[in-house]
Amino acid sequence: KESNGPTNSYAAISQVDRLQSEPESIRKWREEQKERLEQLDANSRKQEAEWKEKAIKELEEWYARQDEKLQKTKASNRAAEEAFVNDAEDVFPGTEWERVAQLCDFNPKSSKQAKDVSRMRSVLISLKQAPLVR
């Protein structure tokens, strides 16, 4: 079988002929370019490894901070629950609305809710001032 171009068996020979026939300056440039690219690849691998180490370290620090915040939150919640339970045990007749008032935030400026709770607030305040008679 004959073909117009070089076959696979002759491809290596034609490439060697091409490398031998190219000028010295082009061969030198090709070798320098190959070295430069290898150096850039090595630098990028090194930089990638540094970034990975930095990311791992930052992630560990973030987890440590999150764990610390979680422990603080747990401690404050336990203290608040203990105080709430202690207050719940001190039940006296006629102090129901005072206990409700302690649990509710009646300051409209500090409310972080998006809903309008002004009517409920006014109802609770009026009930605190004039409790229902049974």
From TrEMBL:
Q: What is this protein called?
A: Clathrin light chain
Q: Which family does it belong to?
A: Belongs to the clathrin light chain family.
Q: Which GO terms describe its biological process?
A: clathrin-dependent endocytosis; intracellular protein transport
Instruction: Give start-end ranges for the coiled-coil region(s).
Output: 30-83
Per UniProt, the keywords (alphabetical) are: Coated pit, Coiled coil, Cytoplasmic vesicle, Membrane
Q: Which GO terms describe its cellular component?
A: clathrin coat of coated pit; clathrin coat of trans-Golgi network vesicle; postsynaptic endocytic zone cytoplasmic component; synaptic vesicle membrane
Pfam families assigned to the protein according to its UniProt record, in alphabetical order? Clathrin_lg_ch
Q: Where is this region: Disordered?
A: 1-24
* Compositionally skewed regions (Polar residues) per UniProt: 1-12
What GO molecular-function term can you cite, just one? clathrin heavy chain binding
Under InterPro entries, the record lists:
Clathrin_L-chain (IPR000996)
Question: According to its record, how does it sit in the membrane?
Answer: Peripheral membrane protein
Main subcellular location of this protein, as a coarse class:
membrane
| Record's function text | Clathrin is the major protein of the polyhedral coat of coated pits and vesicles.
Q: Does the keyword Membrane apply?
A: yes
